[in-house]
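[Q] Does anyone have a clean structure-token version of this?
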Amino acid sequence: MGSIININSITVNGRKITIDPPLNEPEYSLSAYFAYGSCPYLLVLDSDDKPFRKLGTILTGVESEKSKQTKLYRLNDRPLKVKIEERDPEITYLDSLSFIYQDTQTQELKEVFYPLAELQKIDQQYFLLHQRESLEIDLNKILPDTASNIKLKINGYYELI
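[A] Here you go.
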């Protein structure tokens, strides 16, 4: 991977335009008005004394089993927990879920799968999330203290209901 540029704003014709960071989707859903879903949400808990923080939506545009794919999402810093939440009238089908991280002792990239049979491999054995359901993962229970540069790797799709 190359370097990352963090653009906060751009000036066009003398007017400064603020640019939100990636995955900063609005709180509102268009699915009530159009036949388009908003995908499941990804949230992280950075400390026990703060609420979950929304990183955005995941599996964006993967709205049928035909379009199912694996996607990678960078988690900022070292969150304590990760939550995948279905807020809209949709069903999320998760086929595999893992975390890729760099071990600070060895500098090796490693992958750890979430310890639930349906999420261990891509095999069409789905873990389902319906509207108002979530999957909460305590990273301290599955990742070593030496884990850094953590990324969520997820395979699945969602469907409108």
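[Q] Thanks! Anything notable?
[A] The chain has a mean pLDDT of 86.
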